[in-house]
Amino acid sequence: MTKEVRTDIETMRAADADRHKVAEQLKSALDEGRLSLDEYDDRVRSAYNSKTYQELLLLLTDLPRPGLSATEVRARREAEERREARRLPTAMMVLWTIWAALATVNLVVFGLVAATVDGDVYPWPVWLLAPGAALAAVTVGVQAIRHQQRR
Asked: Which regions span the lipid bilayer (predicted)?
């Protein structure tokens, strides 16, 4: 009969140093006014009675890192939301990557041909502007739709 061993960090046993570190974070939260004295006492008691990392992490889940003000936390959250809103969907990123690779190959080949041929060379890479423009239009449309859905 074999025991299944879980390697999740949350199920690992915590050390005294880990408990002390959490107690210090709780003290910072108390000093910043995020916890009342009763909450602090309860959480510190729980921290020193915790056996696993999961029990310790639960004591900190509703607290920001020490030293962060509510304004900084809100600003970081809003910045992350803006960054996420600007991010293209994966399918669009794949299409842009394919287009860029094709454009690069065509431009390199055109440059090599133009450098090695004595006469004029038809500028075939200009034909890549049509799918590029179509892809740009679709990208703008997708982003506009995503922006409206967020409102």
From this structure: 92-114, 126-145
